[in-house]
Give the backbone structure.
Amino acid sequence: MTKWTKNASPVDQPVPEPEHSAYQQAMRERILAAPVVPALEPWLRIAYTSVGGLLGIGFASRPDTGEDLVMVVSHDGHGLIDAVTGERIAWDRDPDTEDDNRGADPALWCAGLGPVAGSRVRIAGLYGGGLHTASGDGWKLEVVAPAWPNERVLLSRDGGLPHSGPHGERWWHIFHSHYSELRAAGFSPSGQTLAVATSSDLSLWTRGAGHSRSAGG
């Protein structure tokens, strides 16, 4: 016969977090000491756009050229941005958010605009989802929070953390979200565009055709 008791784990007793090891502390300090720097060529930052109430972003491709487009979802509507030029192509302040009969979560999808009208775009941001964290040809993107809740975005070609090489040679701290909540960060499926979205803005980097470091600074 099994005897049940009222004794249970003391869930109301906090469990102390283990202290950082010397290795972990050294890695944290190295990331904290790294300033924000421009991404290495061929990456060129082409856009920094204020988007109040940004909820999420996603990638699409132009049907005629295959070039990257960025869909932006915010409290003010849905927008489509050219990821090569940074220009806004289309904007809908009152989008139809009714999903079709495919049963997808409407918080993670939205209807396409402009050249991708009639399609659906997967969205990553406040409600979940995610973007590619690797480009497919050696570039890697990581979001770290050595001073939580402020998150930092690291671009690298050394395989990712722990980034044993010097900052600015094989890894770069390219974005510090110390003023707004980070929504999403990652590469387009093509690997030609890198996007970082916060609750207040969108930043884009490209290595697409027609751009060079001398063209954009």
